[in-house]
Amino acid sequence: MSVSKERRPGPGTLGVHGTDPRPGPGAPVVSPVVQSATFYWSTPEDGELLYSRYGNNPNQLQVGRKIAALEGAEAAVALGSGMGATAMSLLSVLDAGDHVVASSRLYGATYQLLASELPRRGIETSFVDPDRGDWEAAFRTETKVVFVELPTNPTLRILDPRPIVALARERGLTVMCDATFASPVNFRALSVGIDVVIQSATKYLSGHSDVIAGAVSGTGPFIESVMRMSRLYGPALDPHTAWLLDRGLRTLDARMRRHNENAMRIARWLEAHSEVERAIYPGLPSHPDHELARELLDGFGGMVSVVLKGGGEAADRFMHRLQLAAAAPSLGGVETLVSQPRWTSHAGLTAEQREAQGIPDGFVRLSVGIENVEDLIADFDQALG
Ligand SMILES: *Cc1c(COP(=O)(O)O)cnc(C)c1O
Questions:
Q1: What is the pLDDT of residues 58-72, one digit of tens each?
Q2: Is 81 in the pocket of ligand 1 (CB under 6 A)?
Q3: Model pTM score
């Protein structure tokens, strides 16, 4: 792609073209799927390309370069799942005896990994409630990593990463951020000083609810160490999945703009509805982190949560009545998906514990898709009615 050196292309352009040099005449405009586990190779002078678990299959490398460009990172690697990306990132820097400071508001599997799995390997985590907790007090001499998520599931809170980054800098710690709910279109985590950004590419990056994939972006040496880990643990991305992810990235910017727009309209509409106790969306002035979201994000995202006046019964009824939006877990696809945290991500907690986290029984989470917003509103209207 020929762009001037000073101008950084926008996410729409990077998503379509990446930053690779354009191939010559006769080359396919769309790169082929290199569905091969292995490559002709006899001795090291034959180069890098030898075995697809190593992460250097051409499709894996191409999609990694494109994600790095979108995040504004030196390097990135695409892996077999978001959890693969999270686990390899953590394991690449943590040894037995090390300590992690993490936000208490994390994706369920990430929380479990830190709270119950890594302790089996001698790695402890202190969780900090971003509303009440004191980050500085949680640091120990053994602390190596700070892990946060932004925005959070399902209450869509935005924590300010900048003071955390400043504290971590003084101590030479690595700050990792799972920014899946924002995608690099709405939030470029590295631009506020975060060292490592993790995406579940299953969600917005691929965007069609048809693949499981993940990505990590950061410095060249850090990504090298993640690739070294994943060669051992094995969460490589399949070439065809890498190709599908690359195809998803071509429309990421266009999709995110539509997600942002549709979600804003729906959040406003829900907030005014008589059956709704509370609509939760960072784009609404009523959201506790609205000002911070305006400052940090380029878009408020496609996720909207709502608390129905009729409690759990009303939420169940709403889900069963939906005709266009689909009742299903996951998020970030072109289709609108609706779920209740009390039956999915937060099923392991008691009603009181959920209530304490701002998730009462009438809580419904919407992953607003790219359908025509009037049709979605009509569906929600009949389902609430
Ligand atoms: C889905 C999700 C993950 C896990 O990603 P997988 O691709 O399912 O492994 C991690 N973090 C967040 C915020 C998610 O939504």
A1: 999 999 999 999 999
A2: yes
A3: 0.96
